[in-house]
Amino acid sequence: MTAIAAYRTAILALLSDATNVIFSADNVDQALRWALAEYSLRRPLIRTYSYSVDETTAVHVMPADFVTRHIVRVEIWNSDPDAITERPFYAYIRDEQWQIETMVAVEAGEVLQISYSAVHQVDGLDSAAGTTIPTADETLLQTGAAGRAALMRALDRIETINMNKDVVVMYKALGDQYLMTFAEILSIREGVIFSPVPDFPGIVF
């Protein structure tokens, strides 16, 4: 089973629609795209890009196929690994291409190691090859997608004359509940966890 198939199955289970009677695959996929975008904003996938400097300059124009939301860090790499240094920078988009100003000119022949954020992907969704979501966060992403799908359903049916209003309210409540859980867990800051030193009982003579 591909990752997208497993995600669809899990999302539909959360929506109590295992056989796609109410939610189509397109509905589920669109909701998953939204959840992926939100997840990527809070917990971005950090990748690196090596850019060879051809001429001594402080302004570096990235190739047109360099796509990102944020540039996180810029380092100067050369043949001496001990001489790798982080550089202050200013990054912006001009004429649809990223430009990085390193304040101080970088010598020709050196390499910029650029750390940047990328959008996470699920294998099989929009032709993605491979899944970047940590296993521990799969259920979280599926919950966010299910919440978004439920709200989409409520919005789609709110003006339907023969639609039971209680059903609309149910989907709205379900969507709100799932999305609240999604947002709360996403807001938890990831980082190193320290355990306090346990108290040792004193020696009794």
Describe the protein in words:
- With 205 residues, the protein is α+β, with helices and mostly antiparallel strands.
- The chain has 2 domains: 3-43 and 127-186; 45-118.
- Helices cover 35% and strands 22% of the residues.
- The N and C termini lie far apart (64 Å).
Largest sheet composition = 4 strands, antiparallel
Q: What average pLDDT do the residues reach?
A: 87
What is the strand arrangement across the widest sheet?
Answer: 1-7-3-4
What's the number of domains? 2
Total of DSSP H or I helical runs spanning 4+ residues: 4
Q: Tell how many strands the DSSP assignment holds.
A: 7
What would you call the structural class?
Answer: alpha+beta
What portion of residues belong to β-strands?
15-25%
Low-confidence runs of at least 5 consecutive residues: 198-205
Distance between the termini: 64 Å
Can you write the helix and strand succession as a string? HHEEEEEEEHH
Q: What is the radius of gyration computed over CA atoms, rounded to a whole number of angstroms?
A: 24 Å
Shape estimate: elongated
